[in-house]
Design goal:
Length: about 150
């Protein structure tokens, strides 16, 4: 009986680590995902631990048909806005679709994931991160922004 209680507590705890997060809309009325989950973050600012990967799960509806999809991440810290360079395999959003595949159809319900490395050299700062998924015509399929802090474990 004790084992079952421990298992139940572990399942509840792991479920709370990926609770949907209230995010902010991006500029220019770009479509926002229906749901965003970031492992270990249930409210902003999200704490990004240096030397770890941040796992995200997004649910969104494709506003356009598309052949290819790319993740685009932009970070703003200390008044400076710059692209966050993802490794090529992670930047290709077609590689990270769950239950779908590229090409996608307009109106299709999409579940996608993204894993972003938080390098050990990153400074301990507060920042705003904007995550977009773009197609081959540079049209935004979904976009959201979060407040975050880089921290040491």
């Amino acid at each position: 009986m004790y084992r079952y209680a421990v298992l139940l507590v572990a399942l509840v705890a792991s479920g709370s680590l990926t609770e949907a997060l209230q995010t902010r809309a991006c500029t220019n009325q770009r479509p926002q995902p229906a749901s965003v989950e970031i492992t270990g973050c249930t409210q902003m600012p999200c704490e990004l631990i240096r030397g770890s990967d941040v796992a995200m799960r997004l649910e969104w509806e494709a506003p356009f048909a598309a052949q290819t999809l790319q993740h685009r991440v932009v970070a703003t810290a200390l008044g400076i806005t710059a692209p966050y360079e993802l490794p090529p395999d992670r930047a290709n959003a077609c590689n990270w679709l769950d239950g779908s595949a590229c090409p996608i159809s307009q109106g299709e319900d999409i579940v996608s994931t993204l894993s972003m490395p938080v390098l050990p050299i990153y400074p301990l700062v507060s920042l705003v991160i904007e995550v977009s998924i773009l197609d081959e015509q540079a049209r935004t399929h979904t976009c959201f922004a979060i407040d975050a802090r880089v921290v040491v474990a």
